[in-house]
Amino acid sequence: MKMPVIDLANPTKFLALVNRVLPWLIAATAIFFAVGLYRALNAPDDYQQGATVKIMYLHVPAAWLGMMGWGLMCLAALGTLVWRHPLADVAGKAAAPIGAAFTFVCLVTGSLWGRPTWGTYWVWDARLTSELVLLLLYFGVLALYWTAEEPGRGARAAAILSLVGAVNLPIIKFSVDWWNTLHQGESIFRVGGSTIDPSILAPLIFMTIAFTLLFITLYLAAMRNEILRRRVRAMRLMQAQTLAEATP
Amino acid sequence: MRAIVALMLRDMRIAVRVGGGALMGALFFLVLVVMMPFAIGPDLKLLARIGPAILWLGALLASLLALDRLFVSDYEDGSLDLLMTGAVPLELTVAAKAVAHWLTTCLPLVIVAPLLGLLLNIEMRAMGAVALTLLAGTPALTFLGLIGAALSVALRRGGLLLAVLVLPLTVPVLIFGVSASNAAVVEGAAFGPPFTILCALSLAALVLGPVAAAAALRYGLE
Amino acid sequence: MRLQAENLACNRGGRDVFAGLNFAIEAGEALLVTGRNGAGKSSLLRLIAGLVRASAGRLAFSGGAPDAPIGEQAHYLGHQDAVKPSLSVAENLRFWINFLGGGKAASASLEAVGLAPLASLPAAYLSAGQRRRLSIARLIAVARPLWLLDEPTTALDAAAQATLADLMRAHLAGGGLIVAAAHGPIGLERARELKLGPP
Predict the structure, then answer these.
(1) Which chains neighbour B (Cβ–Cβ under 8 Å, 3 or more pairs)?
(2) Per residue in A37-71, pLDDT tens?
């Protein structure tokens, strides 16, 4: 069994880049969170929902990042399937848990946000239900990564599922909307009414940027970890091979 | 005794490490329960009323489909042959595997059930009843499913055959499990009698399952 | 101790794989079963191990534990290695020691086959030859008098085959018995031969 040489090629340069960029990213994330949180906490309350509307500053970025995660997985999937680039494998695998986590946060915050209005923790509202299906798709991809014996095989399987999921997501969203309109709609919550007042919009943008920076920071760190993990695995394989040749 | 514990620990270790075993059942359970309202409709009152039934069906299918692999991987790598030559009676060996399977697959289902109950708008009291009935009833499902798992290895067939064989056997468990859960929601229904019968079914399966499964393995692997 | 077979016959899938088999071996003796593929070598070993039932004849093992069936006093080494990839090498071995009953410590057994440095490596990383050696480590770790070896030298290189031959000689010298199925010589010089197949 020959040691896969590509495990150590390009990724080394990538690791060097990540190590240089990461501290700056962490600083930028911290700054945007500081500003964003300050502005969010000082923004006006909604006339109907009171202070609970502030969950929106967490819910909306989380929803967007959940989808961005899947988008990143699709880009990575193209890299894996078309160019067989090893970094593409890593890029896809690193994006999945982070995207899933943000989708989960979106669901939980959505549930908590709606509780006072609905009287219950969950209604099968069109938007939240679509997010739930997205979370299930994420779980599917994560399951593929966890159960694959070899990183390469898992990556290819996950890449295919990512692309299939991307094609399917608009269809799922459409059908869930349709399903929801068949039945008497429960109370639908909107973000701040029909138009968004600037005093709410600005903090929202700050928080969104802050969370996006957080995503990118975590993402690059996750990619670094995955590369290191694969190196450990390659070294273990080499160890087994060397010992096999050395022992009588 | 030491041998039985060693086997249980080994199976649990494998289930936890092969990134699929323990969580996969719970994940399947989640997916099934989410599927239901798409077919039934998002009417919260209706969902709350049939919620216990949905959870029971989900747990039944999730625990059953996970049983498929119980003997197959041991059969494929030659471990089953060696397990049969141990000093431990095959019935106990098989029971040990079943216990390990229940701990790693069914127990997560019982733990996840309350969370899914939230999705189905089941009230707290009923949730407790459902979790309790699942705790008492899933051993019956596992030990009865053991028979199907052994038969499908003996016959070298997989997947759906197991479900076809075992599902009819689990009808009493499903009936009394849902009945006991509903008792917490519906006024005037008793929880005690169906729950006691459920426990009795589990105890009976604890004996019937391993005996039948061991016989199936012996005659099937000749 | 003595393993004796009288008029043994085995029926698989409706046809007689072998019939009218007679042999006997005493403590310290080995029986080499030869024959072309399909002649029934594996079936004979599985029959002795108790995994397959004889359709005719008698098999007796005397001198060992009085109440235990032959299968519990024999150690069956089949074509597959019964190695779980998600457990480490040492964990695999220690499980079988705990389940089948041990006579030798896991670390010492791994030393004897040269796998000691790999003890904490997940078994998924082992090559076919290393997996076979792990099975052999199991053979010496579990103390059972009768060894049933089905083509034990598969996937082993020359050095490992020599180690196996040494271990087999040591087992026989200690009063054990061996029944081995092989296509050719496996290092048991003074073994009796039993040829299976059409006359």
Answers:
(1) A, C
(2) 888 887 777 666 677 778 888 888 999 899 999 99
